[in-house]
């Protein structure tokens, strides 16, 4: 392999882990954008850059829908333009990267980097280097949830390939992240094989033991007194989420509601209000403007108002699912149905390990992280939506 090709592969895959790498020179510059733009020029110089017809159709819809909503709801059009540019550059870049170098080469590089980052994340955590909070691992990523989500495809792949040492290291780091997204992802990785009859007996005992152990552990801690710093983190969040669930339709929160619970449920309430009143959606990039229109219906905990955190995730809805429902309305629901149908077809074919691995990241993305173009998103999405392992750009 030529040196330039090796650089393009390694730098592009490394770029998906660089959300927390930025520096300030006149303006804030993210390493991801610098890699993407410079590599785009290199690829354009050496190879022919193309745009898939499906990408063109999708962007035509985004623009037409966004312009219509702009005229109807009068949200700033700059937000639409920014989102269209960000999504188009990221998606076209990764489409061409995968078309040129093939998915198996790029996924192999992703797996190598995932394992390496997991290895260095453990000493980083215990030495207090770049930790999100004092007791949660996030490695070189900005948040524990982001770390867990980007590691889920590698977890599934190493499990399927029976590379248990690498699997064990990554699973340990996900547990150290203490991310609910990570725990849900690991649970799905255990459960989904049971959907297939031939795997049922092989994995069911292990899953039942894990589920029963988890249930017993939660029940043993459930009645313990809740304190912010000393009580079990998972139990505390589950109990507070349960107690705060009424806020999803009232908008009124208890004063002791924790920040994570409030972030999800408050945005659930806002997205629900937008969908009820504007079922066709409000356009790509409109969420933060619509949020401001419905914010007065919320009654946030007083301590979050004091900390100026009562509008947390105003720009991204805390969840891609919620943001899509708000921005695209019924069209967003159709996109979700496509994802479900595509997932069903992928898991019917045992050979589609790369696509299956991507599912776990994308599912976690729907639950959490509502940005439309984080560094890693289109890397996994384009792998997921195409059909073959060797050349996923074939229709």
From TrEMBL:
User: Where does it mainly reside?
Assistant: membrane
Sorted keywords for this record are: Membrane, Transmembrane, Transmembrane helix
Q: How far does the signal peptide extend, from start to end residue? A: none
Membrane topology term reads:
Multi-pass membrane protein
TM helices/strands, residue ranges: 23-43, 55-73, 79-98, 110-132, 144-160, 167-194, 200-218, 320-340
Localization: Membrane
User: Where does the record place the O-antigen ligase-related domain?
Assistant: 170-337
Question: Which GO terms of the cellular component aspect does the record hold?
Answer: membrane
Query: Would the keyword Chloroplast be found if you checked this record's keyword annotation?
Result: no
Species annotation = Polaribacter aquimarinus
The name of this protein is O-antigen ligase-related domain-containing protein
Does Hydrolase appear among the keywords? no
